[in-house]
Amino acid sequence: MRYAPSDSPVLTLTTGPVDAYPAVLRGLASPVLYDYDPLFLATYQRVCEKLAPLVKSQTVPVLLHGEPVLALEAAAASLIGRDDVVLNLVSGVYAKGFEGRAGRSSAEIVELAVPYDQVIDPAAVAEALAARPDVTVVAACHHDTPSGTINPIAEIGAVVARHGALFLVDTVSSFGGMAIDAESAHADLFVTGPNKCLGCPPGLSILGVSERAWAKMEANPSAPRASILSILDWRDAWRADRPFPFTPSVAEVNGLEAAIDLYVTEGPEKVWARHALTARACRAGILAMGLALWPADVAFASPTTTAVRTPEGIDEAALRGEVRARYGVVLSSGRGATAGRLTRIGHMGPTAQPIHAVVAVAAFGGALTALGHRVDVGAGVAAALAVIDADRDGD
Ligand SMILES: *Cc1c(COP(=O)(O)O)cnc(C)c1O
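^ Alanine--glyoxylate aminotransferase family protein, sequence as received from the core. Prediction below:
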């Protein structure tokens, strides 16, 4: 049998948009209240306050009402002023993309770049800052999703903090799937969202803001006000004594509350452990089939995404097409500089379950074999199961 493009996929194992938890879908289906109804105002405040111990920012997290590229635009426009020199740490497509956002408001952008299968070395950041003491803002991406690599963000953040610059970090595709928060990252502006590892649909951004970042934004004459890019306007937005800057995404806020409740009930450490185990099983299966991971060192590999190098002679789009047509499984492509060179298997939210790694390995290996690149699918499946079973034995 074949799945036609018009057939619904059986499993979506992508890196975003990701499958949503059923409880989140039920949250989204709650009655859509008037935004000034006291019940919704209370929900809005409760959601922001429930995020506080998870994001661990110095002040109560702020919601913006669009998927996290909105928050990245808003962060660049609000934090970075005409006199700021920005050090942009580039190990992938998202970090590189930040250059364009930062370029609209900064005096200068200095780049520290590594090949997209590597990660940023904190010592190199220290050197770059020593060479440019005038750097006032450092920007980084924790998990550059199109490469499936994790930067050592806590160590980088400590270097930035010693220098005294403000630190802006994108954790959109790692937050909720591994141990990362604004405090451990030393982040002044912690940009994330619920639409990857928290298992919500795209539609909201979450920002963790330090006291210094608020002061900087308030003093920045070019920081947007009365704009969809204004972070300042959304501070403490639930306060009954003033209007929302514009209509909040009521249904998405209800969905986010369901996601937070699920996450807290399961326990963040447990959630992170199942993301890590799923990724470990997936990597073992891929390697046992004689394939290569995209990250140059397995120590760089993300627990929320497994990026597999496309074997020589294989058309990456055709490979994903075959995975979907044969098995009904949807995987992600690369993006920009990694497009055509790798395939990504997402382990995010509800798909971060070890058995999905077995499915992904089998489907990937089966499709490759069908395209003429013969791999030992049985060995891949056995290796993935062995990782899962070894973990179970440890319980
Ligand atoms: C998903 C993601 C975002 C959000 O942006 P989209 O490209 O619109 O999905 C931002 N940063 C990172 C690292 C992401 O993975």
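Residues 80 and 366 are 49 Å apart (CA to CA).
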